[in-house]
Amino acid sequence: MTYIHSTIAKLMLSSPAQAEFYQAVEEVLESLTMVLEQDDKYRRHAIIERMIEPERQIMFRVPWADDNGVIHVNKGYRIEFNSALGPFKGGLRFHPSVNASIIKFLGFEQVFKNALTGLPIGGAKGGANFDPKGRSDAEIMRFCQSFMNELYRHIGPNTDVPAGDIGVGAREIGYMFGQYKRLANSFDGVFTGKSLLWGGSLVRKEATGYGCVYFAKYMLQDRQQTLQDKQCLVSGSGNVAIYTIEKLQQLGAIAVSCSDSAGTIYHKSGIVLATLKQLKEVQHARLSEYISHHPDAEYTPVADYPDDGHAVWRYPADLAFPCATQNELTAADATVLVQNGCIAVSEGANMPSTQAAVEVFLEAKIAYGPGKAANAGGVATSQLEMAQNASMRSWSFAEVDEQLKIIMRNIYSSARDTASEFGAEGNLVLGANIAGFRRVADAMIEQGLV
Ligand SMILES: NC(=O)C1=CN([C@@H]2O[C@H](COP(=O)(O)OP(=O)(O)OC[C@H]3O[C@@H](n4cnc5c(N)ncnc54)[C@H](O)[C@@H]3O)[C@@H](O)[C@H]2O)C=CC1
Ligand SMILES: O=C(O)CCC(=O)C(=O)O
């Protein structure tokens, strides 16, 4: 049995039924074979064994009452994965699919992603299996307050700094911060993604989507291509998708699609961002309503999707930006994308492509930016928010955006150069995993057996 297989087999025994977590670990371990063989210090210090076991896992009950007085109980999580490089950092997800496997895969990815930014942040993730869909504002507030009644004791500006993710945006951060402040009796930078009125950073809202497009731009530059006039498929219609579309439009590309969990919109002449923002950011409406504003667009409900994939990836395009959720792009989707002439994929979401889909991209040698590199602009800008909070200063939009561009360029160069160093030219999966790993692993060795 190979080292990877025996590690995964042990993980399955110690942490049963965590398919997404195994998937994330396996992908990383496959990239690390050469680096582990090159220097046996990582094996001697049991770095892999320590890295795949979170430093701390917090699971808790979240009881709350709906507007009719009916009591509900959800499960809350904060998985503090690794603090070798800095305070635990990573988002909170509120979605009915949340379980220990999802939060652990996200936390594990976050460790490598945060290391790639070059900034002093460790990795964590949290959330709850709460479904915000259809809930009133008062219900959301009560849920957030109950969630924070437990979480507040585990977080702090120098220990663990949560942010948003699926289902957690500015509104939820506001309610959680308010309850934290009340319980901790302290106004500090314990969250990022805060409102600009009370300590947020300009560009944080846009950062993940913008960063994902900057990453694509740098991948294309190395292939003597630009974004100008490129047809782009985008999935999702939340924070990351919206600001991916916005930056694509600003850089001369045409974003022709978006999706939500009920269906996909394809608008050949280009998604009208004002409509999308109104529907999703203001009205919290279903995407299907887009059609009533733009009858020339097409809507495909989920029921009509192909059995082996997602409707959004079946349209012809030059570039693809998966910005919805994990495993939303299958090997069959990847094959169609490549056959249709797609030259680059930049992942705004976390682990949106299945392992088999990633293999299709690598085999076809198209430019493929894995999520932990391509979507790191969000957490990087969160760290810039922490830096502004700590120094009690605020930087201009242009200053933060400039730093974001530099960070994304550095992440791209570091993944590209590390891939070349290991003889895997163009394989940004391998490059990103090794570059992130070395930074965390070397810090862990220096900090002793903890
Ligand atoms: N918000 C951030 O700063 C960051 C987010 N991410 C990742 O980006 C992805 C999207 O997150 P956000 O935009 O923040 O969340 P969001 O809650 O703002 O939006 C999520 C969107 O995905 C859609 N969606 C969910 N499941 C879907 C499915 N099965 N098919 C199609 N659409 C589906 C939802 O309808 C929604 O429009 C997630 O994977 C998240 O982990 C990654 C880095 C940072
Ligand atoms: O901004 C952050 O702290 C975390 C963003 C996030 O959840 C992610 O990168 O997946």
UniProtKB/TrEMBL annotation:
Q: Where is the active site?
A: 125
CDD domains per UniProt: NAD_bind_2_Glu_DH (cd05313)
UniProt: NAD(+) binding residues: 208, 239
Q: Name one GO molecular function term.
A: glutamate dehydrogenase (NADP+) activity
Q: Spell out the reaction equation it catalyses.
A: L-glutamate + NADP(+) + H2O = 2-oxoglutarate + NH4(+) + NADPH + H(+)
| PROSITE patterns, sorted | GLFV_DEHYDROGENASE (PS00074)
Q: Which UniProt keywords apply?
A: NAD, Nucleotide-binding, Oxidoreductase
Pfam families, A to Z: ELFV_dehydrog (PF00208), ELFV_dehydrog_N (PF02812)
GO terms of biological process kind: glutamate biosynthetic process
Which InterPro entries does the record associate with it?
A: Aminoacid_DH-like_N_sf, Glu/Leu/Phe/Val/Trp_DH, Glu/Leu/Phe/Val/Trp_DH_C, Glu/Leu/Phe/Val/Trp_DH_dimer, Glu/Leu/Phe/Val_DH_AS, Glu_DH, Glu_Leu_Phe_Val_DH, NAD(P)-bd_dom_sf
Annotated residues that bind substrate are located at 89, 110, 113, 164, 382
Q: Which residues form the signal peptide?
A: none
Q: List residues of the Glutamate/phenylalanine/leucine/valine/L-tryptophan dehydrogenase C-terminal domain.
A: 201-448
Give me the Gene Ontology terms describing cellular component. Answer: cytosol
Concerning Gene3D superfamilies, the annotation shows: Glutamate Dehydrogenase, chain A, domain 3, Leucine Dehydrogenase, chain A, domain 1, NAD(P)-binding Rossmann-like Domain
Highest taxon of the lineage:
Bacteria
Q: Where is this site: Important for catalysis?
A: 165
Any idea what job this protein has?
Catalyzes the reversible oxidative deamination of glutamate to alpha-ketoglutarate and ammonia.
Identify its protein family. Answer: Belongs to the Glu/Leu/Phe/Val dehydrogenases family.
- Can you state the subunit structure given in the record? Homohexamer.
- The name of this protein is Glutamate dehydrogenase
